[in-house]
Amino acid sequence: MASLMEENILQASSVGETRKASSLQEDSETVEENGHVAKRFKPDHEEQAKKYPKKKVVLLMAYSGKGYHGMQRNVGSSQYKTIEDELVQALVLSDCIPENHAEHMKKMSFQRCARTDKGVSAAGQVVSLKIRLIDNTVEKINGHLPSHIRVLGLKRVTGRFNSKNSCDARTYSYTIPTFAFAHKDHETQDESFRLSQETLNRVNELLSLYKGTHNFHNFTSQKGPWDPSAKRYIMEMHCEPPFEQGGLELAVIKVKGQSFMMHQIRKMIGLVIAVVKGYAAPSIMERSWGEEKVDIPKVPGLGLVLERVHFEKYNRRFGNDGFHESLDWTEKEEYIEAFKKEHIYPTIIQTEIDEKSMASWLATLSIHDYDATSQQQNVNDHKVSGAIISTSSCLCSPTN
């Protein structure tokens, strides 16, 4: 009897061990299966991160700036939409950057070459950043962008490349109705005006005065005459022959410089217009680079376009090293011109026809006090006491 009980216990124990072993085996297989399944169903962005590691690139961009508050993002503010808001969203949706980095683009080493102002367009903007080089990267980014913002090209660059710091120069254009150059006293001030060769030569004489290094503290805000960063080098500035489109005669002013401050180009052009139209004396040009404050009008932003950015030093060092491409974008010229003809020029022309922004701005030229600072200087030259200094500064303070 005892032996029978022992036999039953042994059998039960054996069955238990077998079930336990079977259970352990099942658990083991389940863990293995779960592990395998977990790998198979990992979130797409993690899988993408492994398959497409981040690489440093530059993106060539073109956009129509109408309706946007410039290029640079205002993180945390949805009130003012910018071009970068659209770009970052497209980069996230195309899985080129992680969503959690969208609010902190410094993690992606993001840098734009130029901060275009409100309403300003670009045909050759360049941004640098680290992205995942997914299949058909450019096409997928553009698939999440509106038609008036395009990525036209992508190139790999060195790990330390910074589009702002590596840029040697920037070229802008300003498309302007030629009636802006009509003299205020003896020429028609509307669309019937046609620019003469004599006036075009006069415009170019004045524009050429900007070439070289000058103190442009009067051509921007919040910079004093002794701020070293107010000195800028202008390589070229000229007005091209006029052409007609959409019932308007237009001309394109082009300027190339190392870098530009906010509103600088618009004020450079505004001052030349004030002189050509007869509101200001030609001497104001040289006076504007001096220490005194000069009242300078600023043309509307509508016609301003960032045409291209230049990377001569980078191209000489890395453009032919066998690993990196030259950043001259010659192969994209056809696409750049097509974008300008489809999205930029029609917007500039139609907006001018509909809103008459240039005509409205020209009407404000007469309210500027172009002689205020010269009067101030005359007073200062005859100061004899602190009382006179105080009085003159109160009576003759220049307009900002």
TrEMBL record:
UniProt keyword ATP-binding present: no
Listed InterPro entries: PsdUridine_synth_cat_dom_sf (IPR020103), PsdUridine_synth_TruA (IPR001406), PsdUridine_synth_TruA_a/b_dom (IPR020097), PsdUridine_synth_TruA_C (IPR020095), PUS1/PUS2-like (IPR041708), TruA/RsuA/RluB/E/F_N (IPR020094)
Alphabetical list of Pfam families matching this protein: PseudoU_synth_1
Span of domain Pseudouridine synthase I TruA alpha/beta: 209-312
Listed Polar residues bias regions: 10-25
Region span, Disordered: 1-38
Keywords in alphabetical order: Isomerase, tRNA processing
Keyword Repressor included in the entry's annotation: no
Stated family: Belongs to the tRNA pseudouridine synthase TruA family.
NCBIfam families: hisT_truA (TIGR00071)
Designated name of the protein: Pseudouridine synthase I TruA alpha/beta domain-containing protein
